[in-house]
C-alpha cells in the first residue's frame, strides 16, 4: 500500500523533540534495519548494520568510497539482497521482497531518464501501471512538474535540459507514485558546484514539504551537513556514528569521524591527570574523554575553533588588563591563504614542535587584529574544543 504524503508534515527533528518533552508519544521507526550483513566471497561489505529511521526523517549515509553506504542503500531497495539480517518498512518485513514489491522511489546519480520519451512521459512512466485514468495521470504529472519548477519543459526531451533540470525530473518521477520512502544515490555528484548547492536546497525544501522519509547516499560532507536531519557515518562496512549534523561535527565519536568530517589539526599527545594532555612537552586543558592517564592519544582541534587574540591576549573591553585564559599560545604567522569567506592561516610555535597549527580566521578578525604573514600573535585553544581520541590503529 502506498503512503500518501502530506504537505507541511511535521519534520522528524520536531517530532523527536516533542517526544522527548513528553508532549507526543514515541513512534515506532518507519524503517528498521537489524544486524545486516553483505558478503562477496570472503569480503564483508556490511558488518552487522543496525539502524532505525523515523517517518519523515532525512538521513544521509556518509563515508569514503568503499565504506558500504551504496551497498546498504541497495539492500534497502532490494536491488542487492543482504546475506543475512532484516529490513522492516512501516512495520512490514521486506527483507526478501523484490524491488517491485517495495514501497520506494529512487533517484540515481546518472538520472536514468529515458532519452526517447518527453519529460512528461518520463514522469508518467511509473504511473501507467497503477490503474489510474489518463486524466488522473496527466493531472499528477502536471502537479509534479509544477512542484519542481519545470512545468514549461513538459514537451521537451531529456537531452534538451541541463543536468540540474534532468535531476529535478528524475526526482519528480521518483515521487510520482507517492512512495513511502525516497532513496537518493549520490544525486548531485555529477553537477557543477554552484548547481549542486542550489539543488540541494531545492531537494531539502521539497522533502520537508512532502514529509517523505528520505535516505541519501553521499561522500560530500558539506552536502550531508546541509541537508540531513541525521547523518550515518560509515567506514569499512560499519557505522562509526549516527547523529545530527551538529553532533557529528562538534562531538565526533571517533578519530575517523573527526578526520573525515571537516578540517582538523591532529597532534600526538599523552594523557595527564585532571583533564589535561601533554603536547610535545606542553600541557593543554582538554575536553572530557575516556582515555587513562599515561595513554598515548591524538589531540584534535578544528581550525575554526582556534580563537585569535592580539599579542598579549587582552580581554575585549578591557585593553589594559591581561586576560587569564587556558591554552593561550604565542605563535608566529607563517602562511596566509585567502579562501573568500575567511583566511586560512598556518601558525608556528615551539609548543607544536615541528608541526604547524592551521587556523581559520574571519576577514573581520584579520583586519581588526592586523594579522599578517610574519607577524606575532596569540591564539586560544578552548578546553572544550581540544578533543582527545585513542591513537589510530596502524
UniProtKB/TrEMBL annotation:
- All copies of domain ABC transporter, residue ranges: 31-261
Q: Region labeled Disordered — which residues?
A: 1-20
* UniProt xrefs under PROSITE patterns: ABC_TRANSPORTER_1, ABC_TRANSPORTER_2
UniProt cross-references to SUPFAM superfamilies, sorted A to Z: MOP-like (SSF50331), P-loop containing nucleoside triphosphate hydrolases (SSF52540)
Keywords in UniProt for this one?
Answer: ATP-binding, Cell inner membrane, Cell membrane, Membrane, Nucleotide-binding, Translocase, Transport
MF-aspect GO terms? ATP binding
Q: Record's SMART domains?
A: AAA
Q: Which InterPro entries match?
A: AAA+_ATPase, ABC_SmlMolc_Importer, ABC_transporter-like_ATP-bd, ABC_transporter-like_CS, AminoethylPonate_ABC_PhnT2, Mo/tungstate-bd_C_term_dom, P-loop_NTPase
State the similarity comment. Belongs to the ABC transporter superfamily.
Q: What is this protein called?
A: 2-aminoethylphosphonate ABC transporter ATP-binding protein
Q: Which source organism does the UniProt entry give?
A: Neoaquamicrobium sediminum
